Amino acid sequence: MKAMIINSYGASDVFELTEVAKPSVGPGQVLVKIAATSVNTVDTMIRQMGKELPLSPDLPAILGMDFAGTVEAVGEGVDAFANGDEVYGCAGGLADIPGALAEYMVADAKLIALKPKSASMREAAALPLVGITAYEGLTRAGVSQGQKVLVHGGSGGVGHVALQIAKAFGADVYSTGGGTKQLALIEDLGATGINYVDESVEAYVAKHTGGAGFDVVFDSVGGANLTNSFEAAALNAQVATTVSMVELDLTPMHFKGLSLHVVFMLIPMLHNHKREEHGVILQELAKLVDDGSLRPVVDENSFTLQEAGKAHDHLTSGNAIGKVVISV
Asked: Which homologous superfamily is 2-127+270-327 in?
């Protein structure tokens, strides 16, 4: 089969189109003919940083975590899927698990689900990593009917999904963005847009919550922005973040009695820990897509397998609106 291999870590030109052996399916696995794969920030980090990241694969490697495709073979013990099923998931591209930048990949059956019926392969491929991350963070934070929820970075990959899921859970959703395009997407997806460039945290908390703060803050920006999340949160509120690799003064958390939930969705893949939970979440996400509550946003630029490097560049440029997807 054809695959985009990296033989070294570094710039986006490290990808090489190569003929490699088609993988064989093992017990508990399915062989998927890949139709599309999306690019996540973590994919670009692995390519650039290599072994500085503990989750990076040994070389040569096939990257690409998210995918959608068609089951071509099922391994021993797999009864949830059959040949011809259209599936999606986040099931490789790190550690010792080859990824989706190839014509075929083998996936743990626990990490995948039937793709949403109403979604294209490209739309389905855009969803797994960001969808699981958003769903996990919101459910751990206990988002429920009538709560006021703030999503930081609502036009980004995780953020645009998080605000739609929070809305589907019955919350009153607000979201920050930094420009006209970002705020237009946020509003289009059903949240109240907040321009963080023009409006201070104090100002938008006063405007939208009467100064009380938000019941849940989902922070897909994280890092130093967590201080803004703490400021925006109500007393005894829940804060979920996808980026917490930062040294931070937690004093504001203490005096508000806040709870902090750190989401690192790669744990099941990396540690073979409760992988079946990802399959269940993907099933729930598919239901939300098919009932019209969730729409994955795909960037208008289309890339082929051979253009994987260009797809990485487009994501890191900051010019993408929605997920960057590669058609295989």
From this structure: Medium-chain alcohol dehydrogenases, catalytic domain (3.90.180.10)
